[in-house]
């Protein structure tokens, strides 16, 4: 049994924010969870995947993408069970179609949607602020500041969700998800028996044809009003200290603010509004807070989400509080904050003199070599790139070729000496953009996608490519796992984690052939000459073709079994 | 109350996560308020990795000039992290290099260490340098470098934690067959500083 399940009530654990979320979800009676991995959310799914085997009363699956995962969790919640789905910020874009209408039809059992945002793009292609999804969809949102708060908030989110009959968004960032700290524990419910829900039919609730959708939108707006009252009175929203100068803050920035105040000797002398229940905005609380102060600095990462809410409240109530933040240039709208940055902003906003610690002279430090991320020694992706590169060179086409790429370890094909990654938007874009390049240019197109990404978002653009007679070569790099995020399963894999031996296997070559792709070949990239001979006709042709390069991730091969 | 900011830096694969887990669990067991921030994901093997460990503070991140202790598992990474230090920051570092692939490919150079480390000793008040990988190898496995460095941190006396407290959590977190070598490595690090 995993220690996170074993821990009895009151035991203290040192947990990652993501692990604390899992403990909180279990304490809150989670029954069905589904996810597609993505950093910084991945450990939530990984841990649920590990513990599910020991808990008959819990179901977890890795779904093929975030939209499917959200629909699995939504149906479970519609059947009265408590459910969860988790994803990285850009994963919510994939699931957004489900999200926006799920907000209309709502849930019966509590449902928590975890979005782990990545300010500074530590492992992402953008740093979008998913708090705007709460505003966009109208759903309630909670934002923890620490791992222990993440645990307690997750458990509470189920209650809130059932009260409002709406899914609740729990939004973390990298520095909450990947912070490790002391976490308390509460009682776990009985997970020793499977639990089933029951779906009660009600087409006027669950089937949003236009006539139903128009009514449900009205219901959603009423619930937002109801939730605003809850946010106003929520204990997650609290005021610390006293004074004419105020700070509104949320998320990990709360910690930076409180530490800065301590260091500046201002603890208790500044009025701080800590917000954890951030959407719907607690407008009554914000109004009362702003009324009592002259100047207010809003400290939040990325978008001016609370700052704009505060300005709106001030305008509506005719308050003249001076609101400082991103609009006034006190804080940036870019990248994650650091404690030093927040302290600097506070010093400027308060008009204090900065006391810089004595910095040693470091001009003697020599130039240091960088350590860019690289493909592991022996990685099959490198071999695949070399096979394709050498054949294109032999054909005299290497320079005339566009290489659309996709999301995975193989995106590192960008770097020298490979340099075979020219265009990327999001999961699956290698295939869709190849369709576009094939009509917009006369250049040759060879695109790369991983096995997991192919199942996630590559199937439907490939069908489109076949039907619209686009001409390009797609290389599916089948390493039998979702390698970058920690070796999660893929439907086509032969190598398996223990416990998955009985799952059916979807044969990639058969799928591609069934879609009607005119040329398909499977290669072993380590057998270079054989592989080169096999791919040459496809790379030389002016028709759609798929090369499946099959060789397991060398790290996964050591951990899984056939 | 102990208030301390410890910045641990190294190269992916050197075991910095286990280093911080053992340190963190020891703090937890001894009732010290610990929080840390780890870097996960995106092909960290061979890349720069760091853990920020704070005692008594809320922010699990260490800004420029804020580190009270810098723990380096690799000398170039120690040098890279110096802007996060003050003159009175205690520096504890292994001197055995991990040469990046980019250097092996001839695209960058690894600096000459001796003069840089001499300047390091001159610039900061308390600097402890030792060949961590060599000490680990002598203890049984070069992979226990992380425990040599942890032993050195324990031996520095900067933390209100006993040697036995560290060893208890080490035994809990390290796989049984590696415990002996890791304990020895910890001892070697402890003695190099004490």
Number of domains of chain A: 3
Instruction: Tell me the CATH topology of the largest domain in chain A.
Output: Rossmann fold
**Largest interface, counted with CB-CB under 8 A?**
A-B, 54 and 55 residues
User: What's the number of extended β-strand segments of chain A?
Assistant: 19
* Helix-residue proportion of chain B: 40-55%
Main β-sheet of chain B: number of strands, strand sense, barrel status? 6 strands, mixed
Helix content of chain A: 25-40%
Strand content of chain B is 15-25%
Number of DSSP helical runs of chain A: 22
Number of distinct beta strands of chain B: 6
Provide the residue-averaged pLDDT of chain B.
94
Q: What low-confidence regions of chain A span 5 or more consecutive residues with pLDDT below 50?
A: none
Account of the protein in words:
The complex is a heterodimer of chains A (562) and B (194). Chain A has 562 residues and is α/β, with parallel strands linked by helices. Chain A folds into 3 domains: 230 residues, Rossmann fold, CATH 3.40.50.970; 113 residues, 3-Layer(aba) Sandwich (Rossmann fold); 178 residues, Thiamin diphosphate (ThDP)-binding fold, Pyr/PP domains (Rossmann fold). In chain A, 40% of the residues lie in helices and 16% in strands. In chain A, the strands form 4 sheets. In chain A, strands 3-2-4-5-7-6-12 form a 7-stranded mixed sheet, sandwiched between helices. In chain A, strands 9-11-10-13-14 form a 5-stranded mixed sheet, sandwiched between helices. Chain A has a 5-stranded parallel sheet with strand order 15-16-17-19-18, sandwiched between helices. The two termini of chain A are 24 Å apart. The mean pLDDT of chain A is 97. Chain B has one domain: Pyruvate-ferredoxin Oxidoreductase, domain 3. Helices cover 41% and strands 21% of the residues of chain B. Chain B is built from 8 helices and 6 strands; from the N terminus they run E-H-E-E-E-H-E-H-H-E-H-H-H-H. A 6-stranded mixed sheet of chain B has the order 2-3-1-4-5-6, with helices on both faces. In chain B, helix 1 runs parallel beside helix 6, helix 5 crosses helix 8 and helix 7 runs antiparallel to helix 8. The relative contact order of chain B is 0.18.
């Amino acid at each position: 049994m995993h220690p996170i399940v074993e821990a009895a009530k009151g035991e203290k654990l040192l947990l990652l924010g993501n692990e604390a979320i899992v403990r909180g979800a279990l304490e809150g009676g989670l029954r069905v969870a589904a996810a597609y991995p993505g950093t910084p959310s991945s450990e939530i799914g990984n841990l649920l995947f590990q513990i599910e085997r020991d808990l008959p009363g819990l179901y977890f699956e890795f779904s093929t993408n975030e939209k499917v995962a959200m629909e699995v969790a939504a149906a479970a919640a519609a059947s009265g069970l408590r459910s969860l789905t988790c994803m990285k910020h850009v994963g919510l874009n994939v699931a957004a179609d489900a999200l926006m209408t799920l907000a209309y039809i709502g849930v019966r059992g509590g449902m928590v949607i975890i979005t782990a945002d990545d300010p500074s793009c530590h492992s992402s292609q953008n740093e979008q602020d998913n708090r705007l999804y709460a505003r966009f969809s109208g759903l309630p949102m909670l934002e923890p500041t620490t791992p222990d708060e993440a645990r307690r908030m997750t458990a509470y989110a189920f209650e809130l969700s059932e009260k409002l009959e709406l899914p609740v968004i729990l939004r973390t960032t990298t520095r909450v998800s990947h912070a490790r700290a002391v976490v308390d524990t509460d009682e776990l419910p009985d997970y020793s028996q499977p639990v089933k829900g029951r779906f009660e039919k009600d087409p006027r609730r669950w089937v949003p044809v236009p006539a139903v959708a128009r009514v449900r939108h009205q219901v959603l707006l009423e619930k937002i009003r109801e939730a605003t009252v809850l946010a106003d009175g929520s204990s997650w929203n609290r005021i610390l200290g006293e004074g004419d100068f105020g700070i509104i803050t949320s998320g990990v920035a709360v910690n930076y603010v409180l530490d800065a105040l301590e260091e500046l000797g201002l603890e208790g002398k500044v009025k701080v509004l800590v917000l954890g229940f951030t959407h719907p905005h607690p407008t009554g609380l914000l109004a009362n807070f702003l009324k009592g102060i002259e100047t207010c600095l809003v400290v939040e990462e990325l978008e001016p989400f609370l700052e704009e809410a505060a300005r709106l409240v001030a305008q509506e109530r005719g308050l003249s509080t001076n609101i400082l933040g991103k609009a006034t240039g006190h804080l940036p709208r870019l990248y994650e904050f650091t404690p030093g940055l927040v302290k600097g902003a506070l010093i400027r906003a308060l008009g204090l003199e900065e006391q810089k610690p004595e910095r040693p002279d470091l001009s003697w430090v020599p130039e240091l070599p960088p350590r860019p991320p690289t493909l592991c020694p022996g990685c099959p992706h490198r071999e695949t790139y070399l096979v394709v590169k050498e054949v294109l060179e032999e054909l005299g086409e290497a320079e005339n070729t566009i290489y659309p790429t996709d999301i995975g370890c193989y995106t590192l094909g960008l770097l020298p000496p490979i340099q075979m990654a020219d265009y990327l938007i999001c999961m699956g874009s290698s295939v869709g953009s190849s369709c576009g390049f094939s009509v917009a240019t006369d250049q040759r197109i060879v695109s790369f996608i991983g096995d997991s990404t192919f199942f996630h978002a590559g199937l439907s653009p490939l069908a489109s490519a076949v039907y619209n007679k686009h001409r390009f070569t797609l290389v599916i790099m089948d390493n039998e796992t979702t390698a970058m995020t920690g070796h999660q399963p893929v439907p086509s894999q032969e190598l398996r984690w223990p416990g998955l031996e009985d799952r059916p296997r979807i044969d990639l070559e058969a799928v591609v052939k069934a879609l009607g792709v005119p040329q398909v070949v499977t290669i072993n990239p380590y057998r270079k000459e054989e592989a080169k001979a096999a791919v040459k006709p496809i790379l030389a042709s002016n028709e759609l073709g798929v090369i499946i390069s099959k060789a397991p991730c060398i790290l996964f091969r050591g951990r899984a079994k056939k | 109350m102990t208030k301390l900011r410890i910045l641990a830096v190294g190269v992916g694969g050197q075991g910095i996560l286990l280093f911080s887990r053992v340190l963190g669990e020891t703090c937890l067991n001894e009732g010290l308020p610990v929080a840390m921030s780890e870097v996960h994901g995106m092909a960290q093997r061979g890349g720069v990795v760091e853990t920020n460990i704070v005692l008594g503070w809320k922010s699990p991140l260490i800004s420029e000039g804020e580190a009270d202790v810098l723990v380096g598992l690799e000398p170039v990474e120690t040098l890279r992290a110096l802007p996060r230090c003050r003159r009175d920051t205690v520096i504890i570092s292994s001197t055995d290099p991990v040469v990046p692939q980019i250097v092996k490919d001839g695209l960058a150079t690894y600096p000459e260490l001796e003069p840089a480390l001499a300047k390091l000793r001159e610039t900061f008040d308390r600097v402890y340098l030792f060949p961590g990988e060599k000490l680990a190898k002598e203890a049984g496995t070069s992979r226990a470098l992380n425990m040599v460095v942890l032993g050195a941190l324990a031996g520095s006396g900067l933390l209100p934690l006993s040697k036995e407290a560290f060893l208890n959590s080490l035994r809990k977190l390290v796989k049984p067959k590696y415990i002996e070598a890791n304990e020895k490595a910890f001892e070697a690090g402890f003695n190099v500083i004490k």
